[in-house]
Fold this sequence. Notes:
This protein is mainly alpha-helical.
Amino acid sequence: MSTPVRTRFAPSPTGYMHIGGMRTALFAWLWARHTGGTFILRIDDTDQERNVEAALGPIFRAFEWLGLNWDEGPKAGGPHEPYYQSQRSHLYKAAVEQLLKEGKAFKDFDPPELIAEDRKQAEAAKKTYINVRRSLELSEAERQEFEASGKPFTVRFLVPRDQKIAIDDAVRGHVEWDCSLMPDPVIMRSNGTCLYNFATVVDDVQMGITHIIRAEEHLANTPVQALIHLALGNPLPVFAHIPFITAPGSTKKLSKRDVEKLRNSPQLKKMFDRADEVFPQLGIGDSKSLNPVMVEYYEKLGYLPAGILNALSRLGWSLDGSTEFMSLEEVVKNFTLERIVKASAGFDPEKLQSYQQHWMNQLSLEEKVAGSLPFLIQSKLISAEPDDATKLMVSRVIAALGDRLRVFSDILDYKEFFVADEELVYEDKPFQQRLRDVPESVGFVRSLREVILAVEPFDAASVDKLVHDFVEKQGIKIGQVVNALRVAITGKSAGVGLFDAFALLGRDRSIRRIDRALSRV
Length: 521
């Protein structure tokens, strides 16, 4: 009978939820769900100097927004509580004592200065640094004397340097390391706290983790962790080191550290610019506070979880050579570790947008309205409790937009339908080019105003016919009229169809806006 699958994602709370980390979590979650196993969320907060308490919020929120529930962990509880490393130090110290007792670890009394000198000599000789095991040569009396006097020491794991350690990685295949080239890693500092590489193994053992699915940069940690697993009497879990996500047009990992370089990337510039356009309207900063490396960026812009999950699941994994659009349920059904590729996965904003657009197109009009309302409310374009008339207006605008509504915050690009007529902002360049600098177009608009007043019924089709009849009668080009009319009633040169805009605004509002524009010429 096979052991039930238990996977985990163990982030360090250092300020935000990385989109690459979310992809790693997703793969671990998918494998647990595919096999009917258990997914654990654990907070690896051993490095207290780097931890940011407020960062736990974005981590939990990212999972909850995407609908990736965890079976054990913070909030959910479970049989292996607590799920914070900072609260599990007693387990790590007990494991240290076990290894010391069994002769698989030792107390190293060498002062930092001496170790630094050893490193310096190794570098000068162009050799790999391997710690000198001086403390193993101490007599029992000397060790007891050092401890009695309070001489500081670290605890090092004793690497069996007469062997090799190997794993059969589910993604990368057979990998092995020569232990003779490995220094003995410190597993407990002189202040009694344990290091991540040791603590995470103790947790994985205690929580019964069967599959460690993580980013490939952790492969370097694997030989030491595998040796500790064996030393603690635990069978090796299955390791699966997945490829990291690269920045667009690069072989370098997508990283928040490179955010200023990413800001100028041709592929990402639009995403940063969009944050600078939208977030200030929502009162949540700009691209300096939220950027495309962070999961929260996508939530705050109104992306769909289905679009993000589809995109992330396809970064380094595929069902076949052609299937692109898959629901989370479909991915769960078909997900296997064998289909994860070794090559790094490039972050492609255009591809991400195609997934988003696909899933947005699956929504009903009512669902699009429900998703857009919070953005209009947050930007104060409508009241916090919109009435039926306002909701109807939102519905009509969204229907007129069609596939122009790519993410929910795009509704903010059409604020002309939600602001009062006297507060409509005219974009300077279009107003100058389409009205102020072309007096003949102004004359046509004045003439059209009179017939627009009388057209019946006042709908898109009727205004369309009216304008085309006017153009034909005047013997002019349609552009000489529609461009000026668009600026007059919407304040800008692009947007929904002109005649749809008339219908959305209605006769009275359209006339008021035409009059206001003419008064400013």
